[in-house]
Amino acid sequence: MSARTGSGPLRRLVVLRHAKSAWPEGVPDHERPLAPRGLRDAPAAGRALADADCLPDLALCSTAVRARRTWDLASAQWGTPPPVRHEPRLYAADPDELLDVVRETPAGVETLLLVGHNPGLQDLILDLAGDDLDDALAEVRVKFPTSAIAVLAWYGPTWRDLAPGTALLTWTAVPRGRKGG
To answer: What is the enclosing helix (H) or strand (E) of 148?
Structure first.
């Protein structure tokens, strides 16, 4: 079953890698804050999602400080942010663990935002995408940098039906904020 031929409503999984983080000495990885560039790029990611009409019905966000702050800054760009669930299992998760969490999404959610970390996010995108538009898969294979966004579309009655190779990678972007702006 491909993204174009499945049954059920059109669903979108929007994947957002956390913005650029800092590496302060003595700070555990989970507690690392955003770097100045990350503080600029996270709002730009939120604006890019709004401009692309990819606002989610629900967000699942890693509990790591850099992911939570990315969510806060990105979602502040929208009129009414959707509910967010801070999910500890997203931190340092591999693609199978990420997919397990995604599959728990209520059926009423048509657009889901996943905020997390590499390499898990990049590998999840590559696993789920059976096809792409505009060579988006080639771009993701090369790099999925901080603040990168990928949108996967597929048809399915529930999120439990999302499986490797069944989604269409429809759009990627790497929004960057301007210095001093």
So the answer is: none
Residue of 12, 24, 38 whose CA lies nearest to 125: 12
> Considering only CA atoms, which of 4, 35, 1 is closest in space to residue 18?
35
Please write the tens of the pLDDT for every residue from 51-81.
999 999 999 999 999 999 999 999 999 999 9
Round the average pLDDT of the chain to a whole number and report it: 94
- In sequence order, the 6+-apart residues with CB closer than 8 A to the CB of 61 are 67, 68, 71, 84, 85, 86, 87, 90, 115, 116
Q: Cα separation of 137 and 131, whole Å?
A: 8
Question: Strands, E, within the chain: which ranges?
Answer: 10-17, 58-62, 84-87, 111-116, 129-132, 149-155, 167-173
The H-assigned helical ranges of 103-173 are 120-128, 136-142
Give me the amino acid identity at 5. T
Give bridge partners of residue 155 from the DSSP assignment.
Answer: 10
Cβ neighbourhood burial of 162 (10 Å; 0-12, 13-18, 19+): buried
Residue 84 has pLDDT above 50, yes or no: yes
By the 8 A CB rule, do 58 and 110 touch?
no
Half-sphere exposure of 145 (CA within 13 A, CB side): 11
